[in-house]
Specification:
- The protein has a single domain, classed as Metallo-beta-lactamase, Chain A, CATH 3.60.15.10.
- The protein is about 40% helix and about 20% strand.
């Protein structure tokens, strides 16, 4: 099943969509909430509205799990700390190292400002100075491969390194639901018959990351964009995305050998994989960045 609307996926596990962007909330028995990537700073006000609609206590978000450090995933964290000063953010040592680099953080801040300016719902009260942004955007708890974090006696979250979209990408498997919260290393779900590769940093690393899940029984996948899938679509996607990635690499190489121009190849790849009917600037930017990054990789591999 493909699910796009905000709501309950499994017992105490919610999908929350804002436009085309997705995040996932796990509610502990005591009402505390663990949230995956909260999104850009402009998302935070609307995120609180979504929580209210679902009767979830926004000020009880006590944990955030980060899949990777892009502004559309994490730039809202400093604003969450305003509402929840005891918030703990989970990521990796590699993420912590990146966030200690002032130049890297400033780039995130500036990208977030540009991204937020394209979203009509931006609230002036959500404006942050760079100093507050950099203080609030930090990793409090470092995770390593297969670490398990107990949400309560019945629910745990297991981390699995999944480089490909970013070198520091991480997936989180929610147990006992066996539901994986992932980033674009798992591609973009573009409908029941299309899986678009998302290995911005390294397509071959993305393939290796996906192979880690060959022996993991998943009941569902929660994507960064578009929604979530459950049931038979889960297995279908896990089979389709590696195949489509390998096909893309092979077909682009074949097209170059056959004399197709770069512009002709790019037009075919973009139309096949990296367009969307969703009117969401974050989704559009993510697709375009992935398209550009992958085309650069494929150009290097055939030069």
């Amino acid at each position: 099943m493909f699910l796009r609307a905000s709501g309950l996926l499994y017992e105490r596990l919610y999908l929350i969509t804002l436009g085309g962007t997705c995040r996932y909330a796990i509610v502990a028995e005591d009402g505390g909430i663990a949230l995956s990537d909260p999104g850009a700073s402009v998302h935070v006000g609307v995120l609180e509205e979504r929580f209210n609609r679902l009767k979830l206590p926004f000020r009880k978000i006590r944990q955030v799990f980060v899949t990777h450090l892009d502004p559309d995933r994490v730039a809202g964290i400093p604003l969450l700390r305003r509402a929840n000063p005891s918030l703990k953010v989970y990521g990796t040592a590699a993420m912590h190292t990146l966030l200690s680099d002032t130049a890297f953080v400033r780039e995130l801040y500036e990208r977030d400002q540009r991204l937020s300016s394209t979203v009509e719902a931006q609230a002036q009260s959500n404006t942050l100075s760079f100093e507050e942004f950099s203080r609030g955007l930090k990793i409090d708890k470092h995770l390593v491969e297969t670490d398990s974090i107990e949400i309560d006696e019945d629910i745990t979250i297991r981390s699995i390194a999944t480089p490909g979209h970013r070198p520091h990408s991480v997936a989180y498997v929610v147990v006992p639901h066996e539901f994986a919260i992932v980033d674009e290393t798992f591609g973009y779900f573009q409908g029941r018959n299309l899986a678009a590769p998302g290995g911005d940093t390294n397509l071959h690393e993305a393939l290796s990351s996906l192979r880690k899940f060959n022996d993991i029984q998943l009941n569902g996948i929660g994507f960064s964009y578009g929604g979530a899938i459950t049931g038979a679509l889960t297995k279908r996607h896990l089979q389709a995305i590696p195949q489509n990635t390998e096909d893309l690499i092979r077909e682009v190489q074949k097209a170059r050998t056959s004399g197709f121009s770069q512009s002709e190849i790019e037009e075919q790849v973009r139309s096949a994989f990296y367009t969307s009917t969703l009117n969401d600037p974050c989704h559009a930017e993510s697709l375009e960045r992935t398209f550009q990054a992958i085309m650069k990789q494929l150009a290097r591999s055939t030069s």
